Amino acid sequence: MTDQQPSLAYKTKQIIKKYEFAFKKNFGQNFLVDERVLDKIVASAQLTAEDTVLEIGPGIGTLTQALARHCKKVIAVEIDKTLIPILQELLSDFDNIQLINEDILKVDIAALAAENGGKKLKVVANLPYYITTPIIMNILEQNLPVESITVMIQKEVAYRMQAQPKSKDYGSLSLVTQYYCMPYLVANVPQNCFMPRPNVDSAVIRLTALEKPAVDVNDRELLFHIIKTAFSQRRKTLLNCFFNAGGWDMSKEQLTALINQAGYDEKVRGEALTLEDYAKITEVFEKELNKA
Ligand code: SAM
Which SS3 state, helix, strand or coil, does residue 69 take? Predict the structure, then answer.
């Protein structure tokens, strides 16, 4: 006999067996079973003893326990009601974990922060992949009291969020994410770190919320519309994207004039422009559209 601890994979298997838990694919249940990745998530979330963490989808509480050891309180929101009694038993040694059986998209996150002293929350999660983008965008677009979001997501989505101009991953998701936060790619995580194995690779990314958006525009909706339009046909010029998909009642000549007025060649492609460039274009379009 050695005094070696059983591995996380072994412990997870034992828990699944003991509670006769059946994984639900529709809830994106791929539990993390790699200690090193677990440690990396916790370290990269940069927790202090004053922090309240919002964990989305605790599963069987593996990450929840690691988080609870490093912060003041963890609020864990789990949609699957069959996991609640399991979690209650497995987390019974902790007095700083609050369990909520709810769909995270229906939770009033601002109220949770207010109930917990008003300090901004840190979101940490191994996210269910089927709703990664809605969860993150919901937090960012509603300007919720969240300081940072440290999450395991599909690798492809993480790469897109942190991509820079002229790279293959750069697109509207990169620009919208970087409008609200500073992304930092923490680690790539292979499929064998989960039980059951997902059929995509994963990555951990930390998004640190900016005090104010990265660029200053009057009309955020217009900025996002312009960005989405610019990437609507990746290999086409900005002019053609605007003409084909912008939905503005303008001729090619009018659109060319506006793009030039902002300081750009109409033949430029969306992938070459930065967030600052899009802000300048938005300003010019806003003035023109308000004239009409
Ligand atoms: N945190 C655990 C871990 O790291 O092993 C489980 C992660 S698993 C990828 C995703 C978890 O999110 C599952 O427990 C799943 O039931 C839960 N979940 C799925 N959709 C949810 C939703 N809309 N709201 C809250 N939890 C959700």
Answer: coil
**Left, alpha or beta for 128 (phi > 0: left; psi -120 to 50: alpha)?**
beta
Q: What is the dihedral of CA 249, 253, 259, 260, to 10 degrees?
A: -160
Q: Quick one: fold of 8-209?
A: Rossmann fold (3.40.50)
Q: How far apart are CA 21 and CA 10, in angstroms?
A: 15
**What are the domain boundaries of the chain?**
8-209, 220-291
28 CB under 6 A from ligand 1? Answer: yes
Task: Give nearest CA residue, ligand 1 atom 12.
Answer: 57
Average pLDDT over residues 32-46: 97
Per-residue confidence (pLDDT) for residue 2, from 0 to 100: 53
Please indicate whether residue 103, judged by its CB atom, sits closer than 6 Å to ligand 1.
yes
Write down how long the chain is.
292
CATH class name, domain 220-291: mainly alpha
- Report which protein residue has its CA nearest ligand 1's atom 5: 31
Angstrom distance (rounded) from CA 4 to CA 90: 21
Strands (E), the chain: 31-32, 52-56, 73-78, 97-101, 121-126, 146-154, 181-189, 194-195, 202-209
Reduced to 3 states, what is the DSSP secondary structure of residue 211? coil
27 lines ligand 1 (CB under 6 A): yes
Closest residue by Cα to atom 23, ligand 1, is: 103
Interstrand relation of 181-189 and 202-209 (parallel, antiparallel or unpaired): antiparallel
The pLDDT tens digits for 62-92 are 999 999 999 999 999 999 999 999 999 999 9
Mean pLDDT of 122-137: 95
Secondary structure class of 127 (helix, strand, coil)? coil
